[in-house]
Design goal:
The protein is mainly alpha-helical. It is built from 15 helices and two strands. The protein has one domain: MetI-like fold, CATH 1.10.3720.10.
């Protein structure tokens, strides 16, 4: 009996060690890019490229962070990006919730065809719609009303209105997927509560806002989080409709673009050189430019990491209960 218990305990310990080793290996694979980027960021500019400074630099310095912070114009760009993306997140979540509830509970002719078109928006690549969307917002009109009143269509390019309209009308990033998530969640809710609300005289709209939405917090949190992250990381639509250069991701893409014979990053460093502290080391080599670009990317990722650390428990619970895998 004792030998059997020892054998079972040994198997349990071995399985536990294997599980922890597997978790550590997976965590290392996931965190490796961030750790590598941070190690490059704290390396002194003069030690960049040295063989012995892969993980722990011989000289630790935060000059790279100061230069990248200035090149990115980080605080104003972050405030601008978060403001625009937050409004898009609200519009996209609200639209997806309304559409998802309609597909889950309301029965009307052609609902299956319309839901098939929603699924089609998930399958069709976004880039294939680039030209029609560009032409639409370049000459935006509603049944000729603006052309009749103003004498010409509206030009919505160069301002965030086009992205707001897309987010509010279900054409934003992953809009079809968000509608699908809400539809799956609403289909899993008990109908008795809604039927009781209808018996009490509540209409569809009142039932949706007073009964359904309070129960849909997991789906709302899931969709809102995914919408914020995916719109935050997007550089396609900002460059297409609102190319101001103040979006963090679009700014990194612009810094990574070539500009004649000189790197765009080095041009940016030269422009903001007067704002960089005098004791900061500023070089002019391709390797140094690549490191600064890496630090800029790390700075743009940090807000998302902070947000995830704050809401990770609620987000994981929301994914489990929202029907995202259903």
């Amino acid at each position: 009996m004792t030998r059997t218990k020892l054998l079972k305990n040994g198997q349990a310990i071995g399985f536990g060690l294997f599980r922890y080793l597997l978790i550590i290996c997976l965590a290392y694979m996931i965190l490796y890019p961030l750790l590598r980027m941070f190690a490059e960021g704290i390396a002194h500019p003069h030690t960049i490229g040295m063989v012995g400074s892969i993980w722990i630099p011989p000289i630790i310095s935060f000059d790279n962070f100061m230069v990248a912070f200035t090149v990115m114009n980080f605080i104003p760009s972050l405030i601008f990006t978060v403001s625009i993306i937050s409004l898009m997140m609200v519009l996209q979540t609200f639209n997806a919730a309304l559409a998802g509830y309609a597909f889950a509970r309301l029965r009307f002719r052609g609902s299956g065809i319309l839901f098939g078109l929603v699924i089609l928006t998930i399958v069709v690549p976004t880039q294939t719609l680039m030209l029609p969307q560009f032409v639409l917002f370049r000459n935006f009109d509603i049944f000729g009303i603006f052309n009749l009143i103003l004498g010409e269509p509206l030009n919505l390019l160069g301002e965030p209105t086009a992205m707001f309209l897309m987010a509010g009308l279900g054409q934003g990033i992953a809009g079809g997927m968000f509608i699908y998530i809400f539809r799956q969640f609403f289909r899993g809710l008990p109908k008795e509560l809604e039927e009781a609300a209808h018996v009490d005289g509540a209409g569809v709209i009142r039932t949706f806002f007073t009964i359904v939405i309070p129960m849909a917090k997991p789906a709302v949190l899931t969709v809102a989080t995914l919408s914020f992250i995916w719109n935050y990381n997007d550089s396609f639509f900002p460059q297409l409709f609102h190319p101001t250069g103040q979006y963090l991701r679009a700014r990194i893409t612009a810094l990574n673009a070539p500009s004649g014979g000189t790197s765009t990053m080095q041009l940016a460093i030269g422009i903001v050189r007067s704002n960089i502290p005098r004791d900061a080391v500023v070089l002019s080599t391709p390797a140094y430019d690549a490191v600064i670009l890496t630090v800029c990317t790390l700075l743009s990722i940090l807000p998302l990491v902070v947000i995830f650390l704050i809401i990770q428990k609620q987000f994981v619970e929301g994914v489990e209960r929202s029907g995202i895998v259903g």
